[in-house]
Specification:
The structure holds 2 protein chains of 2 kinds. Chain A is of the alpha+beta class. Chain A is 39% helix and 28% strand. Chain A is built from 3 helices and 6 strands, in the order ββββαβααβ. Chain B is 39% helix and 11% strand. Classes of the chains: A alpha+beta, B alpha/beta.
Chain lengths: 94, 358
């Protein structure tokens, strides 16, 4: 069930190229040639988005990874990160 | 999350240090519908090209090795009836695909596929803005019109086109007009004075190379590569310099961060460095890339082993290519005569070479 403040996203595979590289994820936005490098937790979030995934699902995963961090902080940081990837057309809203 | 202007160059250096073939040149066929006078492809390969299954297997293996930037070339790659399928498969695997083509076979259907699945760049061979000169080089009457029509079609659909123009005695006079036309139409272009030997060792194309006088004119033109590269290298940060320093003694990154596969399945460090590493019909790419005797030899090359080059006063102006040294001068550890000539001219002009960490 998707809540009103929630959204579902997925990798924009028609518009990107990608590879695994030294424990990093290299993503190229095809039209502009812009390269984005994701490491550690950002790479894990990216991998979660291989199939349509909601912000809530990602939050749930991150809360398990970082039980010491306040959920509000996780939500804020994650939203900023995801919106940036959406802006770069690396992720799309479903 | 990391993003910067030098990110690709850093990536290429990091790939070199970790032996990741991030950049792959894949000649899908040696067949061509044009017969360009300067072409490096020798005849006689027509019926032995890789099957679709073999190409797909190679792409799977490349992906496992960490490859990302894929350049499809030929001959004319669009002559393959299964080209669309190969392209879609490469995109499905996540490669960033660039296509080298004469563009004569590009049509709306293909453009729709490029748009739908995403193509990075289409590099089009265009030798002049004067139809007669272009057709003289391709030796096929009407080829100019077909190529131009395709360029217009692609640009109207917002597909990125890059004009590729080797400079020969035949087309040198008109290159400035071609550059003006490309500028006017917002197209990038690459002019190169490198006319290389054929891949069977024949030096026949050398007759088309620019004279020393024309080479000097070419290298003094800011629209020809060196200056652009120099500009790209201005913004170097500490990490970039650190990576450059670590790779200082490597004469070329071919075999470190790049490899090439021809339409027969032969594997080389670079399409211009014809030192055979193996064949994908007989070995896996992993075996060839990680353990073969030839790749170990390529990676054992060090700049200080190049005896003829070691004390050369023009060294800072030189972009010595081991492939050219091998195929044109016959010695992997020797000089490349053509590069020596270019270095001498650059020294007179005080300009620096095109070499970049790719």
């Amino acid at each position: 069930m998707i809540k009103p403040q929630d959204f579902v996203i997925v990798q924009n595979k028609r518009k990107i190229g990608w590879c695994d590289f030294n424990k990093k994820k290299i993503i190229v936005q095809i039209e502009k040639g812009e390269i984005t490098i994701l490491e550690d937790i950002s790479k894990e979030i990216w991998d979660l988005c291989q199939k349509p995934t909601s912000l809530s699902d990602i939050m749930k995963y991150l809360k398990e990874c970082f039980p010491e961090v306040k959920p509000a902080v996780i939500r804020k940081d994650t939203s900023i990160f995801l919106k940036d990837l959406i802006k770069k057309k690396l992720l799309v809203l479903v | 999350m990391v993003q910067s202007k030098n990110v690709k160059q850093k990536l290429m250096l990091e790939a070199a240090l970790n032996f990741i073939p991030i950049s792959v040149f894949f000649e899908l066929t040696y067949r061509c519908n044009l017969k360009c006078v300067h072409c490096y492809v020798a005849s006689g390969y027509k019926n032995r090209e890789l099957s679709l299954t073999e190409v797909k297997s190679a792409l799977d293996q490349l992906k496992s090795l960490g490859s990302l930037f894929l350049y499809f070339s030929g001959g004319e790659p669009l002559l393959r009836k299964d080209f669309s399928e190969i392209f879609k498969y490469a995109r499905f695997k996540g490669f960033v695909v660039t296509i080298y083509t004469n563009a004569t076979l590009i049509n709306e259907d293909l453009i729709n596929i490029f748009k739908e699945f995403g193509v990075y760049e289409i590099h089009v061979s265009l030798y002049s803005i004067v139809p007669k000169i272009h057709d003289t080089i391709t030796t096929i009457r009407g080829s100019f019109l077909k190529t131009m029509k395709s360029i217009e079609l692609m640009t109207s659909k917002k597909i990125k086109v890059v004009i590729k123009c080797p400079l020969t005695k035949i087309n040198f006079d008109g290159y400035e007009k071609l550059a003006d036309w490309a500028d006017k139409n917002g197209l990038e272009y690459v002019f190169t004075p490198y006319i290389t030997a054929k891949n069977d060792g024949s030096k026949d194309p050398f007759a088309l190379r620019l004279s020393d006088k024309l080479l000097e004119k070419a290298l003094s033109d800011p629209r020809i590569d060196p200056f652009k590269q120099a500009q790209a290298h201005k913004e170097r940060d500490e990490f970039f310099v650190h990576l450059l320093d670590k790779t200082r003694n490597i004469p070329c990154f071919a075999g470190y961060n790049s490899l090439a596969i021809n339409s027969l399945g032969d594997v080389y460090p670079c399409i211009q460095f014809l030192y055979k590493l193996g064949n994908i019909k007989k070995q896996t790419l992993k075996e060839i890339w990680e353990n073969s005797t030839p790749i170990r030899k390529v990676r054992s090359l060090r700049a200080y082993q190049l005896k003829e080059c070691k004390g050369c006063r023009f060294r800072r102006y030189c972009a010595r290519c081991p492939g050219l040294a091998l195929i044109e001068d016959g010695d992997l550890y020797g000089k490349s005569s053509f590069e020596c000539k270019l270095a001498f001219i650059r020294s007179k002009l005080n300009t620096f070479p095109t070499k970049s960490p790719t």
